[in-house]
């Protein structure tokens, strides 16, 4: 059984997920609560805070079409990359996280959630070698310009980007490359920056 409060939150943002996904997310919540007691993986300390982060991670499902591959930069304790992978289990996904404790948690959580297409890369994204990704996501790691620069070798002309931002997003996109068009989707205080090929 998935969590009732998460279910209610999803309805409020107009998302309906199937039961299997909700069960995976419930499993993730339990694991994170357990690990966080000992390992201090995230500031989200209780179920309510973890579910708020899950919801924040999932909102883009309403405007981002399913990619053929996903890279999440600096996944930390799982947001948003592992949560997106729970909703898109068939998509090959790389969660890039250099910190040992967090990377270990991500590996175990992905395994326990039955997410066979998830790979955890315990390294900085600038050191990751991989073919270009369809979608690159990131939350609370660094600014847009630097994210684009650090992931240039992991992208091509088809790559889309989904960055979870706040108030300063306009300044960050003032100097975007002409090859990308920007869309900002608001769910205060969150502002999702969705970058797609301009052509
Ligand atoms: C503030 S935490 C955010 C974690 C998660 N994305 C979230 O929103 O809860 C930033 C994370 O980015 C990781 N990080 C920092 N620099 C990185 C880099 N160059 N490549 C990949 N991950 C990086 C850190 O280890 C840390 O776990």
From TrEMBL:
<comment type="function">
    <text>Specifically methylates the N7 position of a guanine in 16S rRNA.</text>
</comment>
<protein>
    <recommendedName>
        <fullName>Ribosomal RNA small subunit methyltransferase G</fullName>
        <ecNumber>2.1.1.-</ecNumber>
    </recommendedName>
</protein>
<dbReference type="GO" id="GO:0070043">
    <property type="term" value="F:rRNA (guanine-N7-)-methyltransferase activity"/>
</dbReference>
<feature type="binding site">
    <location>
        <position position="79"/>
    </location>
    <ligand>
        <name>S-adenosyl-L-methionine</name>
    </ligand>
</feature>
<feature type="binding site">
    <location>
        <position position="74"/>
    </location>
    <ligand>
        <name>S-adenosyl-L-methionine</name>
    </ligand>
</feature>
<comment type="similarity">
    <text>Belongs to the methyltransferase superfamily. RNA methyltransferase RsmG family.</text>
</comment>
<feature type="binding site">
    <location>
        <begin position="125"/>
        <end position="126"/>
    </location>
    <ligand>
        <name>S-adenosyl-L-methionine</name>
    </ligand>
</feature>
<dbReference type="Pfam" id="PF02527">
    <property type="entry name" value="GidB"/>
</dbReference>
<dbReference type="InterPro" id="IPR003682">
    <property type="entry name" value="rRNA_ssu_MeTfrase_G"/>
</dbReference>
<keyword id="KW-0489">Methyltransferase</keyword>
<feature type="binding site">
    <location>
        <position position="139"/>
    </location>
    <ligand>
        <name>S-adenosyl-L-methionine</name>
    </ligand>
</feature>
<keyword id="KW-0808">Transferase</keyword>
<keyword id="KW-0698">rRNA processing</keyword>
<keyword id="KW-0949">S-adenosyl-L-methionine</keyword>
<dbReference type="InterPro" id="IPR029063">
    <property type="entry name" value="SAM-dependent_MTases_sf"/>
</dbReference>
<keyword id="KW-0963">Cytoplasm</keyword>
<dbReference type="GO" id="GO:0005829">
    <property type="term" value="C:cytosol"/>
</dbReference>
